Sequence to fold (440 residues):
Amino acid sequence: MTYSSEAAQEKRRSFLDPRTKLALVIVLALFVLGGLGGEMMEPIKRVLSVLPFLMLLAERQWKRFFRGLLMLGVGYGLLFVMPYLHGVLNFLALMCGGILTRFVVTIVMGEYLIATTTVSEFISAMERLHMPQAITIPMSVMFRLFPTIVEEWRAIRRAMGMRGIRLGGNRAGEVLEYQMVPMMTSSVRIGEELSASALTRGLGSPVRRTNICRIGFRVQDGILLLLCAATFASWLLELCGVKLW
Amino acid sequence: MNKNENKLKGRDLINVGIYSAIYFVIMMAVAMLGMIPIFLPLLSVIVPILGGIPFMLFLTKVKKPGMLFLMAMIMGIMMLLTGMGPWPLATCAVAGLLAELVYRSGDYKSAKKAVLTHGVFSMWIWGNYLPLFTDYEGYFAQRQDYGQAYIDAVEKLMPLWMAPVLLVACFVCGILGGLLGRALLKKHFAKAGIV
Fold:
């Protein structure tokens, strides 16, 4: 017999284990965004760049998938028209295109991680990796807060913009005081409420917490982790001067 | 104080998370300016000054050893995740440790030491520039898609002697940011009842 909440957890279970997602984020950040590795890594990088989009499809995150695709499309479009433009426009097109094509993949991966991982899943995955609480708690609080802070900031910016307190408005000098300060105030408030609720549920208590969410490696995790390991292996081989192809 | 009270508890760890998140969001918003070449060296001025506001607020919550170091390490990890390479991790460890010692010498409450702490802490930002000086070719090989104009502009702006200048800039502007943060703290946050 399964409890109803257990069944619900199973249904909500994400396509990948949080640990696999994290490994993918790190590999993407190092190799695709950070540009580690030389010529030989190019084909691997191309495979890696496609992955986040496939993941979003597998999780049926249509909106995020199309938004990522759109950004990538705009980026390549700019690079495509770039040779036909002159002067400043050329420079701008090249820069925006370069930035978009460079960052989109990692942004999509980060979005995927945040959208499909609950805080409990993240914490239980970190516990299984034996990460100390001193790292996992602040990190999970951070990931929980990012969307909230950005949302708050957007709302405050809109409200203050109406009074001319924005970059380029007639009271631009007051941006610092009347945009950042309220943003921080409300973020701290939200954070404190969050911390009260988390503490009530026993976060950071000396006793080992149990967790209802189901995580664990499955076939797809194995394949992707192998891919991550292969990426590192080929990078090391390249460093040693071995040519694979 | 006995040892048990000095141990970081859930609440302290959550506080580290909250303020790291605010600090990071502000930093990322500003760092996007670095896409324009002239702003790249200027980031070592802007980031410490703006970062001073959340950091001074954070310092009012710091009462135990380890919190500053932890925040620095988290910044290092976040830099690694956002593709700045492993250098910041090293500078974060050093700057975090030094900041910890400075603030500790003021018994975790001295206002003057708090300003100095932010100056020291801000030096971690220097780690983001290091690849520019140590591995010049590599740095631009991966930024080829920004265009030759960008590379030329940065090349002109970043001769080798800029390395120590940037470190000093981080420290000095960190102190300025600390003063700014303290002024705003008095004016707004105390009134709002957060401090």
About this structure: Chain B has nine helices and no strands. Chain B has one domain: 10-192. Chain B touches chain A through 47 residues (CB under 8 Å).
